[in-house]
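Figure 2 data, in text form.
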Amino acid sequence: MMQKHLSRMIQEFELIPKALVNVVAAYILYLMLETRGHNAKQAAVLMGVSESSFSRMLNRPDSLALAKGSLNRSARRRLKVLQSGKKGKRPLIIIDSTLTDRRGKYVENIAFYRLGKRTVRGHKFINFVLFLDGEVVPLSALAHYSREYCENNGYTYKTENDLVIEWLNWLHASGLFSRDDIKHLHFVCDAGYDARKVQKAINRIGCHFTMAIKSNRLIEDLSIGEYFRRQRIIPWQSIRLFAEKDGKKSERNIA
């Protein structure tokens, strides 16, 4: 019943080809299930659709363009609703990356990425998300291709910062926001995008940003830690964090 209802919604979207509507609906419902891993074989068993149907859908030459077009159209619809009801609010655009741990001999586009103090082998996606008065609207998700994958497939290698700058230039010309709306956008980025060329690209489109600073940065010839130790006026306040792992609760105090 839910699959039929979702199929009707996708068909009204007027972007996905009719031959793919039922397969796309089944795959979306399957991805909503909580499992250790998702694959076409398991999806076929649970959703009653042949495995080859999922494989053909995922390997279509235009699958990436369809995915981007669907996300873009969905974002535009939600933005129209938000902009009409949230006037006067300052929208935030969060730029952050997601790492997907992948293992296997024949998995493509695999690279090693730093995640905190550990290294993750897998895929990296750069996410652009709009946050406005408690509402979250996904705008884009860009895959980061490794050097090896680019060399093997004839692509020009681009760093994460290059991809972010390209997206910022696209945003200004996309029509997703009006020129007046763009001036009120505020970008929030983590330390991975602490680069002058990214900051200049945000300033070029007339926006402001809040960005975490890399630990090796120097401000007025002082390290980050020393600079904030000297400049900080607000006193430190200790907080208590609780976490639960394997049924055991742990407590940690942070100043």
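Caption note: The chain has ten helices and ten strands.
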